[in-house]
Each structure stands twice: as structure tokens, then as C-alpha cells.
TrEMBL record:
<dbReference type="Pfam" id="PF22042">
    <property type="entry name" value="EF-G_D2"/>
</dbReference>
<dbReference type="InterPro" id="IPR009000">
    <property type="entry name" value="Transl_B-barrel_sf"/>
</dbReference>
<dbReference type="InterPro" id="IPR053905">
    <property type="entry name" value="EF-G-like_DII"/>
</dbReference>
<dbReference type="InterPro" id="IPR014721">
    <property type="entry name" value="Ribsml_uS5_D2-typ_fold_subgr"/>
</dbReference>
<feature type="domain" description="Tr-type G">
    <location>
        <begin position="68"/>
        <end position="353"/>
    </location>
</feature>
<keyword id="KW-0342">GTP-binding</keyword>
<dbReference type="InterPro" id="IPR027417">
    <property type="entry name" value="P-loop_NTPase"/>
</dbReference>
<dbReference type="InterPro" id="IPR020568">
    <property type="entry name" value="Ribosomal_Su5_D2-typ_SF"/>
</dbReference>
<protein>
    <submittedName>
        <fullName>Ribosome-releasing factor 2, mitochondrial isoform X4</fullName>
    </submittedName>
</protein>
<dbReference type="Pfam" id="PF00009">
    <property type="entry name" value="GTP_EFTU"/>
</dbReference>
<dbReference type="InterPro" id="IPR031157">
    <property type="entry name" value="G_TR_CS"/>
</dbReference>
<keyword id="KW-0648">Protein biosynthesis</keyword>
<dbReference type="InterPro" id="IPR000795">
    <property type="entry name" value="T_Tr_GTP-bd_dom"/>
</dbReference>
<dbReference type="InterPro" id="IPR041095">
    <property type="entry name" value="EFG_II"/>
</dbReference>
<keyword id="KW-0547">Nucleotide-binding</keyword>
<dbReference type="Pfam" id="PF03764">
    <property type="entry name" value="EFG_IV"/>
</dbReference>
<dbReference type="InterPro" id="IPR009022">
    <property type="entry name" value="EFG_III"/>
</dbReference>
Amino acid sequence: MSNLRIFAVNQKKISSLHYFNNMCSSKIRASLKRLKLHVLLGRNYSSLPGLIGNDIKSLHSIINPPIAKIRNIGIMAHIDAGKTTTTERILYYSGYTRSLGDVDDGDTVTDFMAQERERGITIQSAAVTFDWKGYRINLIDTPGHVDFTLEVERCLRVLDGAVAVFDASAGVEAQTLTVWRQADKHKVPRICFLNKMDKIGASFNYAVESIREKLKAKPLLLQLPIGEGKAFKGVVDVVRTEKLLWNPNSDDGKDFERKPLLEMSDPKLLKETTEARNALIEQVADLDDEFADLVLGEFSENFDLLPAEKLQTAIHRVTLAQTAVPVLCGSALKNKGVQPLLDAITMYLPSPEERNYEFLQWYKGDLCALAFKVLHDKQRGPLVFMRIYSGMLKPQTAIHNINGNCTERVSRLLLPFADQHIEIPLLTAGNIALTVGLKHTATGDTIVSSRSSALAASRRAKREGEKKQKENNEAERLLLAGVEIPEPVFFCTIEPPSMAKQPDLDHALKCLQREDPSLKVKLDPDSGQTVLCGMGELHIEIIHDRIKREYGLETYLGPLQVAYREAILNSIRATDTLDRTLGDKRHLVTVELEAKPVETSSLLPVIEYAASVAGDLSQASREAFENGVHSACLQGPLLGSPVQDVAVTLHSLVIHPGTSTTMISACVSRCLQKVIIVCVVALFLNFS
Ligand code: GDP
Ligand code: MG
């Protein structure tokens, strides 16, 4: 044991986690003071355009917008950058709320869970649907806290585009980087909004530079701020060479004017803007051949004559190709710059049909949808959020779940408006809806109209696969890529107030798990206690809170523990013999194996066979060997935590006739444990 070493990898992540948790608890204290306990906040949601009273029919006109006019977008950011405030302003200007919500008062629309209001953070992403200048926008508010990265991943998959919100005084922050990479992974086109331009210390240039350096993205400056910090008054539209000034006497920012920049009144600003516009045109021309032809031909002499629309179309293409990102700025809190942000969302982010989803060709217009979130509603049962990629969905019809291989019935369709849901009779491709009635569908499932539709799509995929000689399994390609569920990092025991309440607790945990696959529930085999495993302290605290609020159960949590893993850092080869006589039977086995570290972050040991043994090993001996390896990896030598990232190679296995497979496993396990003990072992946290 002398050469065992303990060290923690990811120390940074651990400390940042504590930082977030501490930050949140101070926020909780602060906001608890403000919270008027149990008073539901008076908000009026009945101002939906076209909705007179509860007349569902009048919604017909707005439920099926043409697909080219749909934008499925998300807002992503570091905690506190202003996602929720920006969302609130967006909903207000689009006419869907009548008063401005304020995160600091805990009455925003998207942070609708009670805990979110108290803590002032966004936990569970809520989809919100609204219209802006003839466009239908489905907005998903994604959480920014590290404990909830699964939520972010899940949402990014259903988005066609995203707005990254930055605190202009801080530039790119840690969580923005994480989310930005996740968006890269899902190839989501983005625009950037530099928020908090009114804050002391806000710097447009600094924030733009940090986008360039930290995110390695090419910023397209579509706006320039007029003033910074306290002097921030409005923005310049670089594309149109216009200034946008907000009326200082308007308390909701609805009143602003757009004026062309003139040599007479704004010589300095005009000069800066013209330079910025010329730079923008050159930058876009570098990235887009079609635009380059136009610029070099007709307008090479004078860029000022180039119509704004031509430049906008080219920026749209560049944004879609993700070779650069448009950058806008403003102050959500001070109600400046949000309307142009909405215009930019409709202008530059793609419609669903502009995204290239390969699997769509196999459905030929049949229903294909993805269940991306399950919520539990006490009255209505499970509510499943769906993104529809092709075909249409109607209430009172059966659907087929490919992952679950089952057929279910949708009873009702709802249009999500934060915690308000509006019943609708039909939903078409490109949109997001909530379904009622699906009992077996879980997060990440692919939904089609029927089993035969799935088979037909599978046949088409197969034919296509043969043509292209692809090796992918066609059935798998029919499923929309699944969300990777990270391994839990923190755990603690949870106890009901009395044994009689155990079934209630089990039920509550089952519902919560279907909603949130990153929550795992285990039974401790030694104590028989229920163990909660989650992504962080805050995650577990929230679950505890929700069990109390939503299921009326006061539970007790044990001390929080960290789910460490152990790994070996060098390779060692060893031999072991087990010779035991039980009754009149002799069990004799000799094993020679080697353990070596692997970098794949695989939880289960990788098992390999040396060429010398591979041929003459019976299936039973193989299984016995593998069982032995698995059981040895269950507990490492340092803290008894599971051993991972290890590959085990069998070099020889000599078995005396009559030796039981249990004895083979025991010998293998003992040999491997001996090997692991003499290796250099490291303790770490798995945040994959
Ligand atoms: P989120 O965590 O990204 O959802 O951020 P919030 O919208 O909850 O905002 C975090 C804090 O920043 C709150 O105290 C807001 O009042 C404040 N905030 C949001 N937008 C602005 C802004 O444009 N300017 C300033 N000065 N503060 C802002
Ligand atoms: Mg928020």
C-alpha cells in the first residue's frame, strides 16, 4: 500500500460548485426576505392575441404558422448574465405579458417553480410560445447552473438557434464556455447579446474581444453602443446606419425612435459606423462567396450603396453556416435593445426547415417527434414536451414510441406558455407542444404515428444506407440522438417521516426521476435506506424541497457524500492460484492477468483476451472471468469507491477439471484486487 497516492482531479470544478452553492444560498436568504409567503403572484395571461375569453377556435389562426416563420430558440448564458430578465422583456414587448416581471422581486413568468422564484435562478427550463412581427417564436429558457447541465443539453437538441446572453462587464464566463461547447456539439447557430451595457464597468470592446479569444468565434458587430455604463442611451444599427434611442421618460422601453445617422448631427458616430459597416461587409464577403460576388461586382466602388437587405441575407447564411456570430448589445433591465434583438432572432436565426435533419427524408411527411421533457402535473398526470420535426400531431390519436416500442394515446395537446397551457386542436412540423395522456413516454424518446410508419421509415433508411454503403444500424439512426445522462456526483440518504410513508416517497421519487433522468435513486443493500444521487448539493436540495412542496412529504436527508471514483495510473501483471477442497471436490485454478489504465472514462472495466487464450476459452469460463473482474472493480483500495477507466487482459487461465465457475471468479477477483493495490491509485470525481 506504500505507493498509493490520493489526489483530486477537477479541484477547480469542485470549488466552483461550492462557489455557486454558496452564492445561491445567499440569494435564497435575500429573496426569502422579499417573498410574500404563499401569495400567488397576480399575473394576467389572458392577453394572448386572438384568444377571446377561452374561445379555442379563435386560436386556429395562430396555431399553425408557416414553417418558414417559426423560430425554435433558446437563451443560454452564465448564471446572472440576465437570461430571465431578457426573457421577461421579450415576452412583454411581444405582447404576451402586460406588466414587466422582475427577477429581483421573484415574479417572472419563466422561473415558475416556487424554488426558482425564491432562489432567483432558473432551474427547470420552460418553453414559452409567442409571436413577433408575424413570426412564431418558441423560446426555451435554459438553466445556467452547473448542477443542471443535463437540462441544457436536452434543450439544445430541440433548438434551431440560440441567443447567448453575456454580462458586458464580465465578458465570457465559465458557464458560457460550457454551454457554447454544448451548442457547438449540437451545431446550433447562435447570436450574441451583450447585456448590462448600463452597468458600471460595462465594455463593449472587452466583451467582443473575449468572444473572439475565449470562444474562438468570429464576432460580426451588427450594433455599436451609444454610451457605456451610466451613459448608455441606445444603439447604432450598423447594417442600416441608423441610431436607436430610447425615450428616457418611457418606463417600459416601448417608446424608442430609429433615425438615420447624418453628417450634420452625428459626424463622429457616422464615421465610426461607416467604418464598422465597411469592416462588417468585408468580413461577411470573406465568409460567403455569393455575397463576395455581389460586393466585388456592383458595389465595389461604394459600400454605402449596398442595400441593407442584401447584407442581412448574407449574415443569415453566415450565421447558419456557423462561420461567424452576429453580436448585438443592450440592457434588458433598463429596457434598451431588446426589440432589435427580437428582430435579429427572426432575421438571422434559422427556421426549422433550414436545419439539416438527415432522418426527415425517411419519414416522407409522416409524424416524427422527439419527447424532450416530462413534467408531472398533479391533475393531468405526465405532460410530455414534444418537438415535432415532420408530419402533424392531433389529440385523441394513437402514436408509436420507437424507444419504448409501445403505442400510446395522446388525449390533449397544449401550447406551452410558461406555467399556462392553452389547448389546441392540431400541431404541425417545426413546433413545440405539450401532450397529455402519454404514460410511458420518457425524456429522449422518438415518437412516430404508428409501428408501420416506423417500419416504412426503417426500410427507406436501410435502402439509403445500402446505397451509401454505410455501416450504421438503420434502426438506431431512426432514433433522434439520445441525451447523454451524466453520472451522479453527490449522494445522500433520504428517509420518510414514518415507514408507512415509504410508498408515498417511492412514488414521488419515481415521478421526479421520469422528469429528471440525472436524478438516480438507489437502495443501500446494507442498511435498506433509500439513497438519492444527484449532480450537486443544490440539485439534491431542490429535490428535497419539491418532495415537500409537491408531494406533501417531510423527508430527512442524511449527510451529503461525494461519489468518488478510483483509477489506476500504471500497468501491472500478476498471477494467482486458488486451490481449495470443498467436501470431496478439489477446485484448482491459476490465472494470469494484467491491468492497465485507459482514458475512455468508461465506468465498466474494459475486458480483453490475449491471443494465446482467446481461442480455447469456454463460454462459461469467459463469463466466470468477467464476473470476477467486475466484482473486483466494485470497491477500490482507497475509499472502497468503484474503480473505473481500467482495462484488464487475460493472459492465461488454467482450470483443473471439476472447478466451479464461482471459484474461477473468486480467483480472478482476488488476483485483480492484488494488482490494483500495488498500482498507483488515484481518487477523483467524475463530471463527465
Ligand atoms: P439569469 O440568472 O441569467 O436568469 O439572470 P437574471 O435575469 O436573473 O438577472 C440577474 C441579475 O442581473 C438580476 O439582479 C437582474 O436585475 C440583473 N440584470 C439583468 N439584466 C441587467 C441589465 O441589463 N443591467 C443591469 N445593470 N443588471 C441587470
Ligand atoms: Mg434566470
